[in-house]
Specification:
By secondary structure, this protein is α/β, with parallel strands linked by helices. The chain has eleven helices and ten strands. It has helices spanning about 1-25, 40-55, 70-80, 95-100, 135-145, 160-170, 185-195, 205-210, 260-275, 275-285, 295-315, and strands at about 30-35, 60-65, 85-90, 110-130, 150-155, 175-180, 200, 215-220, 245-255, 290. Helix 2 (about 40-55) links the parallel strand 1 (about 30-35) and strand 2. The protein is globular, with a radius of gyration of 21 Å.
Length: about 325
């Protein structure tokens, strides 16, 4: 009798979930972005929102909630109703923030339903055109000597640029002097001015400034060379073993959102990123456009959380 009652309850719940999915969405959605307007993350969010809104038949409003390296946006989505109407533009900063900040008020993996990734992209370590470091190994050897600390710029303390370089320092037993800026763009300005010796850049900026001749690229942080910079070796090709940093962007929503709704959102996102104009725009940022399942995206976040927790512990990097 008990088993029959449980079966009826489960069947009823499943029926409700299917009904919800069939009527979803019946009002506008919100896509929360943890960074200021104008950057790559924001542009990706607006591309996805515009195209997915067409298929869903509802407007997806992009809301920028910068602060604490994306943690403010993460908390908003983690605490939202589990109905699929509040989305997060998640990216590679999500596990970095969780590893560094003691004060985040959500579980970085379990408080989210992972919809799908949209794109993956490495970083490119760049120096000025007149830099004495002509190869990645020359730069590393300078960091290993420690006679004068080689400085590098980042988008801020705890940014992906910061952690990418800390991982390089740990992997090569080097020391570099961190000069944080308020975002990637000001960091590039500092690099161009000669205020720092090097900086890992997104592919778009690296291509722009290497093609102009202002900067020289020494290495790509991914496992394969960038199609936009085919002559630049990967870190492994340049002699840094077992090194890979690939950032990403994608969508998540609140944990507990019914599976049929998550599936609807995923299907719509996969359609959106394969629309030729959208795909071409994403690829123009130096990205590989690639969708994943909920399980694959969850595993990606878990792996990167382990990596950045290790780097934070070894480099003694913990923020309030």
């Amino acid at each position: 009798m008990v088993l029959r009652f449980v079966s009826l309850v489960l069947a009823s719940a499943a029926g409700i979930a299917v009904a919800l999915a069939q009527s979803f969405p019946d009002r506008p959605l919100r896509l929360v972005v943890g960074f200021s307007p104008g950057g790559n993350v924001d542009v990706i969010a607006r591309l996805l929102a515009q195209e997915m809104g067409k298929g869903l038949g509802q407007t997806i409003g992009v809301e920028n909630k910068p602060g604490q390296a994306g943690a403010i946006a993460g908390e908003i989505v983690a605490r939202a109703a589990p109905d699929g109407y509040t989305l997060l533009l998640a990216n590679g900063a999500h596990p970095v923030t969780a590893a560094l900040y003691k004060s985040i008020k959500y579980k970085p993996v379990d408080d989210f339903a992972w919809i799908s990734t949209a794109s993956f992209y490495p970083f490119v370590l760049c120096v000025r055109k007149d830099s004495p470091y002509r190869t990645l190994q020359e730069l590393i050897k300078a960091g290993q000597r420690g006679d004068a600390l080689v400085s590098y710029g980042s988008g801020g303390v705890g940014s992906i640029h910061h952690m990418t370089t800390e991982l390089l320092a740990l992997a090569t037993n080097s020391r570099f002097q961190h000069i944080p800026y308020r975002g990637e763009a000001p960091g590039v300005t500092g690099l161009l001015a000669g205020d720092v010796a090097f900086m890992p850049l997104t592919v778009t900026l690296a291509v722009q400034h290497t093609q102009s001749g202002a900067l020289r690229a020494l290495g790509v942080t991914g496992k394969t060379r960038s199609k936009d910079l085919p002559d630049v070796p990967t870190f492994e090709e340049a002699g840094v073993n077992d090194y890979e940093v690939v950032s990403w962007s994608g969508l998540a929503t609140t944990a507990g959102t019914p599976a049929p709704i998550v599936d609807r959102l995923r299907n719509e996102m996969v359609r959106a990123i394969n629309v030729p104009d959208v795909k071409a725009r994403l690829e123009s940022f130096g990205t590989e456009v690639k969708a994943t399942s909920e399980a694959e995206m969850r595993a990606l976040v878990e792996r990167q959380l382990v990596l950045w927790n290790k780097v934070a512990a070894q480099a003694n990097l913990r923020l309030d």
